[in-house]
Structure formats: C-alpha cells, structure tokens
Fold this sequence. Notes:
By secondary structure, the protein is α/β, with parallel strands linked by helices. It has helices spanning 4-9, 21-27, 36-43, 49-58, 64-80, 99-115, 131-142, 155-163, 174-184, 199-213, 228-232, 244-252, 263-269, 278-287, 289-320; strands spanning 13-17, 31-33, 87-90, 123-128, 147-152, 168-171, 219-222, 239-242.
Amino acid sequence: MTTLLESLRQHTTVVADTGDFEAMKAFRPTDATTNPSLILKAVQQEQYRYLLEKTVKAAPQASITELCDRLLVAFGSAILDIVPGRVSTEVDARLSFDSQASIERARTIIELYEAAGISRERVLIKLAATWEGIQAARQLESEGIHCNLTLLFSLTQAVACAHANVTLISPFVGRIYDWYKKSAGSSWDEAANAGVNDPGVKSVRKIFNYYKTYGIKTEIMGASFRNIGQIQALSGCDLLTISPALLAELQEKTGEVPLQLDPEYAKDVAPEWRANNEINFRTRLNDNAMATEKLAEGIRLFTADALTLDQLITQVKTQQA
C-alpha cells in the first residue's frame, strides 16, 4: 500500500522543516528549511551541541553576529550532506526593516557557504516578506543570490515578491488558520473550516492561482502546517515544507493524496492582475489585519529566538575563553 507521504511526492516536492539531521535522514526530503527558532531548538539538544562549540572554537575572535552566521552555515552545510537539493538559511529577523543591512548579511552568509565549498545554487537566503525584505531580495537575486521570502500571509506580499523576481516564497498556512480560529472564538466550526475550506489553505490556493495564470516563475512553498489535512489540501503546490511530526504521520498512514492544485484550472479562477509599488503594498497590507498582525508577530518571535541564540553563543564563547 502507498503511504500518504509517497503519494504526496507524486504531486509536490517535499521539504523538511527542521534542524534535526536524523529526521531528514528518515524522511528523505528534497530540500530543507531552517529558521532561528529551529536552530535554537537544535543546539539546545545534546546531540547538536558540538556544532555550536566547534563553531565558536574555530573563530574565537569573531563577534557574536559573525558566530551566529557561521553557526547557521555549519547547520546548513551539514544538512546539504543529507538532502540532494537546497537549504534555506535565514537572515537575522532584527534586520527585517533594513534592506541594506539584510543585503550585506546575505552576502556574508553566501561567502561563508562558498568558503565551505558549497555553491550558492544550493542555498536560499530567507528574508521576511516586508517591503524592505522584498527589495533586499530584488538586489540579491540580481547578484545570483537566490531568496526565500518567509512570513508571507497575503497575496499582496506574494505579488511584490513576484515583481522582485524572487526564487521562492513561503506562504504560511497554520498561522493564518490560528488567527482566524482565535478571532472566531466560540463560534469557530472546525469541520466547516477544514481541508480546502481552511483559511490558510485558501490563501495559498489564491496565490497559486495568481502565479500560474500570469506565468510567474517564483516557486510557492506552503509552510507552517497544523495538521495533515492542510497538507493534503495543497497537493500540487510547487513545494511543501513539513515538520518531522507531520512527516511521520503522513508516512504512517496509507492511501492516495489526490491532486488539488492544477495550473490549468488556476487560469479559470485567478484574481485580476495587480500593479505593484510601495504605496499599494503598504496600503493593501495595512487593510489586511490578519497579515499585518501575523507578520509583526512572526518578526517578534524570530527576533526573540535570535536573541536567545546570541546568549547561548556568548555563554559558550565565555566558557572557551
């Protein structure tokens, strides 16, 4: 019998959303994504502590900022020994509203990868889908540095990313679902908002339909899932990045995952073409309470984890001094 995971792979590229090497070996994803929260979680585990200690020991005079980038690249390099495709490495969320600083950090990360013998073609630089992050990605893409725009909650952000010619976007499903569920309170009907009716799923489908209708080459990678129903409802999306727990659930269950997203059907239901400029972006994003709130919240959460990671690096540096 075919597992749900095997069936899903027939329609979609499966990506592991984790910093856990063992999980990657078990589920054989094509690509892998990381973020400050996942790296923080990993280095707090005894089995990955060595990477933190090794990174600090190799560059004792480096600043905390440089050591953080070196640690991200150490994880990314180890991941690329496991997966055949690409790894996403995130620029510090504290730079989400600073285009030039984001560009400079991204260049540094790519230089570290290339110094380790890894081609930039195997690395996606993750940036928050703020206006500033998207403009940073525009410049980086022109330099041959490929980008993954994350914390994306709306078609408005997706359209701006398309105009910037970014390589890939990561629209979040679960966090959109969370927002609508919380807003509805006691009136929330789980059954009525499941599968293709899930608000997070509907958001990604809208982006997919828009991109495929207008021939936009930017890849769409659904992210941030709460259950396998959301994943199955997006079968046919270019890529889906999935946590180890949900990968395990998909692998344990047998059955077929039918194709849900079809480029040909997309042309029949796509939204109208949208012009893109800064005023339009900020106005439309501001009009979307969910996207505005979740983007800000996501940046705050990633920033908090980045600060905690800085503290861990500082502790190890002090111990080794």
